[in-house]
Amino acid sequence: MSFYAKFLFLVFCLISVIDSTLKMIVQVDLKKLIAYATVQEMGLILMLMLISNKYMLFYTGLFIITHTILSSLFFFIVDCIYKRYKTRTTNGVFGIFNESFFLGIFILISLFLYLGFPFTIKFFIELKLFLFLFSYNYIILVFIVFLLNFLGSFFFAKI
User: Fold this and answer.
1) Residue 33, domain extent
2) What is the pTM (predicted TM-score) of this model?
C-alpha cells in the first residue's frame, strides 16, 4: 500500500476513533455504548495494522481476539441486564450490586479485563503496541491514540 493510501486510512481511522470516543460521553443506552467502544477499538486495531510490521501483527491479532471476546461478553451482560430490568438505559439501571450481586461482580471483572488491568492479556498487548508506536517516533499519533484510548476507557467505565 502506498504512503498516501496508508495516510488516508490512518486519517479516517483517527476520525472514527475520535468520533466514537466523543459519542461515548453522552450515551445513555448501554448497547450503543458498547457499539461505540467496539468502533473505537476497531479503529485502533486498523491503525495498528496499517503501521505495524510482521512481528507486531501477532500482537494485533491477539488484540483482535481479546476485543472479540470482550465485546461479546459485554453484549451478553447488557442482555442479562435487560432481562432483569427491562431497560438498557443507564438511568433505569442502578443498584446492580444490591439486587444481583453476582451480576455486579461479573460486570466489574469484565470491566477490569476491558480496561487492561495490569497483568491481564489486554494490558500486555496494549503495552507492547504503545511501545511499538513509541519506537516509530510518531509522537502526535502516539499521544492521540493513548489519549483517546484512555478517554474511551474512562467514558466507558464511567457509565
Assistant:
1) 3-158
2) 0.82
